[in-house]
Amino acid sequence: MLTLKKISAKTNISSKNCHRFDENNLLQVYFFQLLIESLEDGILILDDMGKVVHANASAYPMCTQLQQEYGHQKFMHSVIWQLCQSLIDKQHLNADNPIVLSDEIVVNPSSIFRIRVRCLNLKITQMPHFLVTIENSHESLKNIAIAEVIKYDLTPREAEIWSLYRGNYSYKDIAAKLYITINTVKKHMKNIHAKRQAYLEAQ
User: Fold this and answer.
1) Under DSSP, is residue 179 helix (H, G, I), strand (E, B) or coil?
2) What are the tens digits of pLDDT across the range 150-185?
């Protein structure tokens, strides 16, 4: 059953366990929690029953799109849970060589999620846990395109065309979307590739 609970980035440790941690350990725990919360990818930690032990902020909107409803209950997406179950069997054969299983979930053309799952061998528990990374492929490509627009010093129009091109739009689709001719798209793409080549040569 899918249950997401917001967990504060501040570390709460009971007084009876405080003696186990020195100040450096507490800072490391706090640092890694902040790091996980700042990631654009969704991060989930699941127990062996599929219950979410921890989810970072990015995971919430992604999981909302990926939730499958059966009756009035919401369950972990079947693709994610199948990867977890496959790992349980494979992990016994590869105990010294942790493996990562991955798959894609296509919700719609602009929401394609790449899922990666690996086992977590935690000393504090005997039961297996799973680290699930959820990447929105469309958003990742968009962010890459934005970075490249700045890197290659593209004009506003070139930036529009390049962003669509990086989003797997064809020249024909780009022309239709921007109300320009295919020849205009080709002309801009030629200029973009020239700027990319100049950048690479300068490096």
Assistant:
1) coil
2) 999 999 999 999 999 988 889 999 999 999 999 999
